[in-house]
Fold this protein.
Amino acid sequence: MKYELVLVRFGEIVIKGRNRNRFETMLLTQIRTALKSFEKLEFVRSYARVYIRLNGESYERVAERLKDIFGIMSFSPVIGSELELEAIREHSLQLIRRLSARPRTFKVSVNRGWKSYPHSSPEMNHLVGSHVLRNTPDLKVDVHHPDVELKIDIQKELAYIYCEVVKGAGGFPLGMNGKAMLLLSGGIDSPVAGWMAMRKGLKVEAVHFHSYPYTSEQAKDKVVALAKRLAYYGGKIRLHLVPFTELQTKLAQSGHDNLIITLMRRSMLRIAEKLAEQNGALAIVTGDSLGQVASQTLGSMNVIGRSAALPLLRPLVMMDKQDIIGYAERIGTYETSILPYEDCCTLFVPKSPAINPNLKIVERAEAMMGGELERLIDEAVRGTEVVVLKDGPSGDDASERPEDAWF
Ligand code: ATP
Ligand code: MG
């Protein structure tokens, strides 16, 4: 008998004890959910790994999906062979023969998880290696730098034979490390920051500030499209759409032209923090990258960051734009991010935004607004609408308050 399997290896193996069990259970559930359209698959859990029995489903299509699941370190297409020597030899030969890139050299590495197997590992290396050599005239053994390493893992139930190891997305299962609010604009950076946060095991809820009617319906559609792409990785994304027009207009009237962006960002963080509290999130994630624009200098980050008590996570802070673009392309957000749109922050862009805002002056400007600032912030939080986005066609999405228009 021969089984076509995929061996999936879990990541971050330093985790031990009860947490490991929790980690593995979460990950297995997420793998099952991501692969639920492949109805014939069966899952067999084993320590720090899971075997997926393909039962006729396409390995290539399953592999495409597996590559994007966080917490998976690597996976391999595997033949599950019965334990008779002849079966192992024959399946090993078949596996080598069907490799698309024809190897010139190989070696066999046998691991005996089941110690009572009648042949020792060195014996098995020889018994299988000689059979492969006899039947593939061009192939040679190279124990130091082989083109292909044929691995045979002998367990009590089956021998698992494979030679390909595909790198997974890494990180932690989604939600394993809690929840964060992602400040999602329509730009290139924040979707990448969101993907990185999710890869680190954070469930994210997205927050977008809009200045309707000054920002358009298209600007909203763009953010929805980005959030939907993140939902491909994150299962389901709740997108909070925050009305920012009134607050923004008031801040623009504060008489500190060069501080508008600083003031706006501080208010955004305060609103995000309130939404975090309402939704059980313990951090705020942004797409800030050091030095990219005036609001992302160290001086600005300092003054802006002080308005929030929650940890501010900036996964891109030390990255170059080109590298960020590379990620955006890889995760499938770039094409959407570069569509033209107006952001609420581009509406009131001052001629010379402060690159080193003075905290005292900023605090004084806010104090001058008295209770009005707090009132406008609370109003924005109250007026926030939530859309739940899923990967796939838009028909699947739902507004949590269907009677409300989004804007
Ligand atoms: P991005 O490409 O993510 O828009 P950016 O380089 O354009 O980033 P900014 O516009 O200065 O930089 O924004 C910095 C960060 O502030 C963004 O990455 C995002 O996290 C947050 N942000 C900016 N505008 C908005 C918005 N309208 N709604 C939600 N978050 C926003
Ligand atoms: Mg932007």
